[in-house]
UniProtKB/TrEMBL annotation, chain A:
The keyword Ligase does not apply. GO terms for cellular component: mitochondrion. This is Acyl carrier protein. The keyword Acetylation does not apply. It comes from Guillardia theta (strain CCMP2712) (Cryptophyte). GO terms for molecular function: acyl binding; acyl carrier activity.
Automatic annotation (TrEMBL), chain B:
Belongs to the complex I LYR family. It is a peripheral membrane protein. GO terms for cellular component: mitochondrial inner membrane. GO terms for biological process: mitochondrial electron transport, NADH to ubiquinone. It is found in: Mitochondrion inner membrane. This is NADH dehydrogenase [ubiquinone] 1 beta subcomplex subunit 9. The keyword Mitochondrion applies. The keyword Acetylation applies.
Length: 121, 104
């Protein structure tokens, strides 16, 4: 079981720094946004999705791209696809409904699903 | 002779639900991975099953087994529907967090 043997590492630390505000320019500080919801930036989603795919066992890193199809381009089978979607759920701490999970067959679809999920972290 | 798309989708759904059910029961990640490998092997064993009727029986048996092992209180991620933090953590109002910084 590839995904469970090695958890994908968080590509992003759990805290993030807020850009120095003009109001208190001498301060730079970190904030954990417990309450603020909202969507992850697409760029970040893309990087983390790609890193999950690259870390998945049996995937040729050189073939991974934003448009790659899990089965046609990366040589995974349908059960591997199920595993990789669960790896995305792990990485972004979301629960993808079964019907939606079955539709995720490419890297691009995974990115657009996660980027449009308000609870993705 | 080949399996229908619907059959393959059912197998995938069974595999996904089986792993999810395992996650409900098994807390330890290492134990979970061992168990999950066993689940995958059980499915892989019949990957090239020539007898379609037998494969159908196996699938039905698998689905029945999944039903039997369903967790009474499945794990739900805190911020997902049904989770402990679902709709509990409202954003802090703008008037509160946007006050000028006062050093004490």
């Amino acid at each position: 079981m590839r995904l469970l043997l090695r958890r994908p590492q968080l590509a992003r630390p759990l805290t993030f720094s807020v850009p120095v505000n003009a109001r208190f320019p001498h301060q730079s500080f970190t904030v954990r946004a417990f309450s603020s919801g909202g969507f992850l930036p697409k760029q970040e989603v893309q990087e983390r999705v790609l890193s999950v795919v690259k870390n998945f066992e049996g995937v040729d890193v050189s073939k991974v791209s934003e448009t790659a199809h899990f089965m046609n381009d990366l040589g995974l089978d349908s059960l591997d696809t199920v595993e990789i979607v669960m790896a995305f759920e792990d990485e972004f701490a979301i629960e993808i409904p079964d019907a939606e999970a079955e539709k995720i067959q490419t890297v691009e679809q995974a990115i657009s699903y996660v980027a449009s999920h308000p609870q993705a972290k | 002779m080949s399996y229908t798309v619907a059959h393959k989708a059912r197998v995938c759904r069974l595999y996904r639900r089986a792993i999810k059910t395992l996650m409900d029961w098994v807390v330890d990640r290492e134990v979970l991975s061992e168990q999950a490998i066993q689940v995958r092997n059980q499915i892989e064993r019949h990957r090239h099953e020539p007898n379609i009727a037998y494969a159908e029986d196996l699938l039905k048996a698998g689905e029945a087994r999944l039903k039997k092992y369903a967790h009474p209180d499945p794990y739900i991620l805190p911020e997902m529907p049904g989770g402990t933090k679902w709709q509990r953590n409202l954003p802090v109002p703008h008037e509160i967090w946007d006050q000028p910084y006062v050093k004490h």
